[in-house]
Amino acid sequence: MAAVTTRRVVALGASNLTRGFQTVVATARAAWGHDVEVVAALGHGRSFGSESRVLARTIPGILQSGLWQELEALPPRPTKAIVTDIGNDILYGFTHTQILSWVEETVDRLKQFSDDIILAGLPRVGVNDISNARFLFFRSILFPRCRLSFADVAETAERVSEGVAAIAAARGLRFVRLKSDWYGVDPIHIRPSKWREAWQEIVCGDSPPAVGRLSRVEAFRLYLMRPQHQQVFGVECGAEQHGLQLPAGGRIWLY
User: Fold this and answer.
1) What is the mean pLDDT of residues 46-69?
2) Which of 7, 44, 62, 239 could be 32's S-S partner, Cβ–Cβ 3.0 to 4.6 Å?
């Protein structure tokens, strides 16, 4: 009998990936076996290229995280990489040029480990899609330090969205356009009722496997899992990463 090859998934993102991470892990395990490895850099408000803070929690940018050193240290595996939540940096005031340069650097680094890279687009937030009052409400809750106008954010988002699609086309990567019906009143976060549908399509395309759910024990262990580096009220409280083994299979590294 031929040996089963262990597969690896590298998942990069912010709040949407954090909220849907259990679904991503369950999808990866259903698609590529119970020994699948998931190496992720995520977190609410995560920036790709800059330190970010949400409430009392501060985390490094994805490009500054220890994920890259871990990928170099781990044995080579067939790897699928997923890049999501690219729009966060718009609300931090970074230009579309800077954001796209971070996306390109991320892709260049991932290319060292995988030729199977997925870029997810941005949710549509044009001036004709949501009201200014709705924008200001969610901006004040999710990005309280942001003072950008709706028009400025919408313009930058459009440029970033076009740029990400162009990067995917130029480099032969799979580009996923996020569907408007995945979102509800909140224009940024995928609705919980759509997590399974959305993440199966993002991760696996048009032919997703039949996916169960993580057990309550597994879900709780993922919820409690700390990344390698984070500060809460200025105190470092991360955790060394050795690959958390889930009871029903799969190992997780978090950065």
Assistant:
1) 94
2) 7
